[in-house]
Amino acid sequence: MSSVIQEFTKSAKDRMKKSVEHFLTETRGIRTGRATTSLVDNIRVDYYGSKTPLNQLATVSVPDPRSLVVKPFDPSGLKDIERAIMASDLGFNPSIEGKQLRISIPPLSEEQRKRLANRVKALAEEARVSMRNVRRDVLREVDAASRDKNREVAVTEDDAKRAKDQVQDLLKDHEKEIEALLAEKSKEIMEG
Predict the structure, then answer these.
(1) 40: nearest Cα among 65, 64, 69, 18
(2) pTM of model > 0.90
(3) Which of 104, 134, 152 is the last residue of a domain?
(4) I want to staple 45 with a disulfide (CB 3.0 to 4.6 A). Which of 83, 84, 110, 187 is the partner?
(5) Element containing residue 7 per DSSP (H, E)
(6) Which domain-ending residue is among 76, 104, 132?
(7) What is the pLDDT of residues 13-50, one digit of tens each?
């Protein structure tokens, strides 16, 4: 395999992998009916004028399957953390217990489960579109490189075709990975 082709496929693979990682990050915070610390991973707390991730201000633990306990490192930030949790779109209503917060995780209704499953599908579609955009960009780069006669290393028509085929295969592989992750997360949400 030509090093030129490797440049294009490596670029495509790295960028598509980032789309998959972004999908995983976004879906990690979606409720499934069970308590998990990742539910509050995306919460940002307005702490002394800056938006700070909750996990940098407190420890989050799961004492039982239906609740979370948030223990701030600085007890003076307890009210700020409570406000941030209530302002999130998770629908949690934390209660202050001494120097910690307890978050009860209410069971999801069928309607909420369907809405969350649709949200995950939308995130999967965003990831697919992102990966298709990567394919489009890399194919444009391949075409431009094959037309550029002033390149150090020439890109032949065969190299260009091979690069395009490999980028398409990468797209298919990453889309399959997104589909598997989508099915797993949807099942998790619907089972509760």
Answers:
(1) 69
(2) no
(3) 104
(4) 84
(5) helix 3-28
(6) 104
(7) 999 999 999 998 888 777 666 777 777 877 888 888 88
